[in-house]
Amino acid sequence: MNGTSGLNSQSSLINTSNSGVIHSPTSMKVENISRATTSKENTRDSSEDLLDLKGKVESRLLSMWNNVKFGWTVKLKTTFSKESPVWLLGRCYHRKLSPSGSLESSTEIGTEATAHNPMEQIYGEGIEGFKSDFVSRIWMTYRREFPIMSGSTFTTDCGWGCMLRSGQMLLAQALVCHFLGRSWRWLPDRTIQNAREFQEDCLHRMIIKWFGDKSSVNSPLSIHQMVNLGEALGKKPGDWYGPASVAHCLKAVMNAASKENYEFDNLEVYVAQESTVYVQDVHSLCQLPNGAWKSLILLVPVKLGTDKLNLIYGPCLTSLLTLDFCIGIIGGRPKHSLYFVGYQDDRLIHLDPHYCQEMVDVWQPNFSLQSFHCRSPRKMPISKMDPSCCIGFYLATQHDFETFVNVIKSFLIPQGISSSSNEYPIFSINYGSRNTIMDPPQIRYSIYESEPNWATTAVQDSDTDLESEEFVLV
């Protein structure tokens, strides 16, 4: 290309010299200056084009590499015990369909939590009910070939967007509860039969469209929008996020979305500060002048150890997953974000965003829903969990919030520690307002100390210690 350009330039000069036109010295000076200026501009444009091309090539190569790296070409099997109950976001599933089924393998706190649930909810559906419930959760993963993010050359979030995707899954679960209800199920092979099923399909698709992978007012919860608003947190496209940063980012995108979408008018997001929920602040946020109450997405970033999870908190975390208003936990293992939705015995069940898929154009009629639902649950020993995480709750009414405040304390104190002690809870409930406290409580570890664990660019993702793909009862 450069050789052709040079020949054309020389040909142009020859034609000019042979044209027989005589130039004055002044006009020749002006012409030379003009040529020099044009040459500089062409050089600058060429440099910018080369940089742009270089960025696109690098992005494409990175996408190709991540497609291989995060393609899940090796399929493993996840084993589920026939003897132990499986918990999934407040619902319990068991092979044994009678109340005589043993719950001995669940944690003491988790067993205690079953007292708040109807017996048919605990035993009524069996392991097939778990499969249906799990596949109905919305799955957000790495995507490739989406529109370039503003201020970058990224056309994929492979290798850096896993915590943002985990946050999207947590938020999507809250929206499913808000618009469809916790008992809603997605049946992939079902033919729509009536008006109710048609409406549910429309709501299902509407929620997914909000997370579409491009900058658009129709997708206010997209990763593009999250990255854009993340700049206020000091993040650039391609930076890693910690659970606390994602919690604040989710609040920011929901606040922005509510200005353009009336569907969010009755929904608020509260992020706990210093691992403390301030009841009065929640009332100020959700209580309307006419006495009405907005539904609440409550996000609580916590850090439960230094370099490793303090295992004393393991039973507390699993017990929280037995609560019907829990929408899951975002965290993972070090430098590998996951979205935890349940557990069996000492293993956490999760959805993994580390799977690179092609972008889906969710603005097309009847777009495919298959890639937004995972049929392959994964499990991870709770001992491998990173201590930094964010716990989510969806509280639809004021009564739900008051119930949460009244019952949650018993789930926050580790076993073996006096319930009257407030020294070591996972997080705290304060009945006042944060603004009225002169010196906020000194939490054991600042939630922001966890960020370096997630902010390393030289990360080596590995799924070799994870189980995946099929249900196998043993």
TrEMBL record:
Q: Which Pfam families match?
A: Peptidase_C54
Please name the GO terms that the record assigns under molecular function: cysteine-type endopeptidase activity; protein-phosphatidylethanolamide deconjugating activity
Q: Where in the cell is it found?
A: Cytoplasm
Q: What is this protein called?
A: Cysteine protease
Q: Which reaction is catalysed here?
A: [protein]-C-terminal L-amino acid-glycyl-phosphatidylethanolamide + H2O = [protein]-C-terminal L-amino acid-glycine + a 1,2-diacyl-sn-glycero-3-phosphoethanolamine
Could you provide one GO biological process annotation from this protein's UniProt record?
Answer: protein processing
Residue ranges of every copy of the Peptidase C54 catalytic domain listed in the record: 128-406
Q: What does this protein do?
A: Cysteine protease that plays a key role in autophagy by mediating both proteolytic activation and delipidation of ATG8 family proteins.
* EC numbers on record: 3.4.22.-
Q: In the UniProt record, which is one GO cellular component term?
A: cytoplasm
Enzyme class of the recorded protein, top EC level: hydrolase
User: What keywords are annotated for this sequence in UniProt?
Assistant: Autophagy, Cytoplasm, Hydrolase, Protease, Protein transport, Thiol protease, Transport
Q: Which InterPro entries match?
A: Papain-like_cys_pep_sf, Peptidase_C54, Peptidase_C54_cat
Q: What is its main location?
A: cytoplasm
Q: Where is the region Disordered?
A: 1-30
Family that this chain belongs to:
Belongs to the peptidase C54 family.
Q: Which organism is it from?
A: Parnassius mnemosyne (clouded apollo)
